[in-house]
Write a structure and sequence with these properties.
binds S-adenosylmethionine; set domain protein methyltransferase, domain 2; S-adenosyl-L-methionine; 14 strands; 19 helices; set domain protein methyltransferase, domain 1; 12% strand; SET_dom_sf; globular; alpha+beta; disordered C terminus; four-stranded antiparallel sheet; nucleus
Length: 474
């Protein structure tokens, strides 16, 4: 048996000894030939609602379950917050090696990643102007590790290194690049594998459909749930879901699953750029969720080039009404519809920017905002210039990118430059296609409105209250 498969077997034995129940109708499978690591596959037909496995809460790798939480003051964990606390606990358990309760689990977790955090500068360049590059935050995360995590490890060196004679030196060495890299790996595992674990007795306020608000989900403690995190994801083929029970977390089939089919979780409607950033892979069926961002910097630059200085008062007013943002989503829509693809906030922003001082003062006096569903000729012209400028920020055109068909090589190592470059190309092509559709639609709108010029001026009734154009939901 390969070491990969024996690690899987040892993991399953450990899990069952820990009190987990795993259905005989599924198996943990080696999916490396399709570059998907391990995955869970049905070996017999599975019925809707059937229990796939249940994991005892005590097996979750979490702050609560780690012995470290009994040794380090609660206030320290509270100060660190859920993400850094779990990184601290995972570092502790990982460096404990075989002595850790979760040693067999660590042996099935990957140590190499394709998430953007681990890409070289040259590989990241392939994403060109994609806004996802500004979301990676490697440097700021390094600083967080150095300023928040390291002091805790140094202060609790004896506990963290289990009384080792060289505990202090080892704690100091945690600031070295290879250890910062280890912290990034734990952080990445949490991002790609951890669940927001609802407590046994739910303290969340749920709406009538049983969903908590996103803010409340963010407050939930994070935990690494063995086996539940071995499910790969698919935007269209999600067929299982984790249910939080008092003593167990139960994975159940959401629909009938045929023998041989993979069991998939759902990561939500993520654009491929975010899928790559958080999970290190992309598939075509996430393309409908692609997003091209129009950054405020581009907007300001284009406005200044065409119309002059941005009026601070207008920006303040837009900010007060929740319209000002660091960037605006332009999304894919099928069939394409300009008003579906453009963020309503972006339309409101453009319409306010083009107002004369007199018009703006009138709007302000009435506490109103332009309607996001009716773009004027001047507004469409400005938006058109902005989108053209955004397209020009990418180093190549879609035509250049697609001269050769772009496919992600499969018969290659998991971490490979070729795979990363192909994935980056597909992400940037997706974004450019969205921008091109919007650019064409705006050009047509400018023509159309130009032809009926004179009726393009907003009437006073074309306004409505408050921040009408909320950021589009992904
Ligand atoms: C929660 S884990 C799933 C288990 C993982 N395959 C493993 O072997 O550890 C998430 C990771 O699995 C991989 N993954 C998930 N869904 C995938 C898919 N549909 N195709 C390829 N890789 C996928 C990505 O590397 C992602 O970061």
């Amino acid at each position: 048996m390969s070491s990969f498969n024996s690690a899987s077997q040892e993991f399953l034995v450990w899990l069952s000894k820990s009190g987990a129940e795993v259905s005989e109708n599924l198996k943990l499978q080696d999916l490396r030939e399709i570059q998907a690591g391990r995955g869970v596959v049905a070996v017999k037909d599975i019925a809707e609602d059937e229990l796939l496995f249940r994991i005892p809460r005590s097996s979750i790798l979490s702050v609560e379950n780690s012995i470290l939480s009994k040794e380090i003051p609660k206030a320290t964990f509270e100060h660190l917050g859920p993400w850094l606390s779990l990184i601290l606990v995972m570092l502790y358990e990982y460096q404990n090696g075989d002595a850790s309760n979760w040693a067999p689990y660590f042996r099935v977790l990957p140590s190499e990643f394709n998430t953007l955090m681990f890409w070289s500068r040259e590989e990241l360049e392939e994403l060109q102007a994609s806004a996802v590059r500004s979301k990676i935050g490697k440097e700021s995360t390094d600083e967080t590790f150095k300023n928040e995590l390291l002091p805790v490890i140094e202060e609790c060196a004896d506990i963290f290194f289990c009384g080792a004679a060289d505990a202090k030196q080892r704690a100091a060495a945690m600031g070295q690049p290879h250890n910062l890299q280890l912290m990034h790996k734990m952080g990445t595992l949490i991002m790609a594998y951890a669940f927001d674990v609802e407590p046994a007795e739910s303290i969340k306020n749920v709406d009538e459909e049983g969903y908590a608000s996103e803010e409340e989900d963010e407050d939930l403690p994070k935990g690494m749930v063995p086996l539940a995190d071995m499910l790969n994801a698919d935007a269209d083929r999600n067929n299982a879901r984790l249910f939080y029970e008092e003593n167990f977390l139960s994975m159940k089939a959401l629909k009938p699953i045929k023998a041989g089919e993979e069991i998939f979780n759902d990561y939500g409607p993520l654009p491929r750029s975010d899928l790559l950033r958080r999970y290190g892979y992309i598939t075509d069926n996430y393309a409908p969720y692609d997003v091209a961002e129009l950054p405020l910097d581009t907007i300001s630059r284009v406005f200044q080039d065409h119309n002059g200085i941005l009026d601070e008062q207008k920006l303040e007013y837009l900010d007060e009404h929740g319209v000002l943002d660091s960037g605006y989503d332009i999304t894919a829509s099928e069939p394409f519809a300009l008003y579906k693809s453009l963020s309503p906030q972006l339309i409101v922003l453009a319409e306010v920017l083009i107002l004369s001082d007199e018009e703006f003062n009138r709007l302000k006096a009435r506490g109103k905002l332009p309607k996001p569903d009716k773009v004027t000729l001047e507004g469409a012209k400005l938006l058109h210039e902005m989108v053209k400028a955004r397209i020009a920020e990418y180093a190549t055109s879609v035509e250049e990118d697609t001269r050769e068909p772009v496919t992600i090589p499969l018969n290659d190592k998991y971490v490979s430059k070729e795979r990363r470059i192909a994935m980056a190309k597909l992400v940037r092509i997706g974004e450019k296609n969205i921008l091109k559709s919007v650019e064409r639609a705006l050009a047509a709108r400018v023509q159309e409105l130009g032809a009926t010029n004179g009726t393009s001026k907003r009437s006073r009734q074309d306004t409505e209250d408050g921040a009408s154009g909320k950021k589009q939901k992904r």
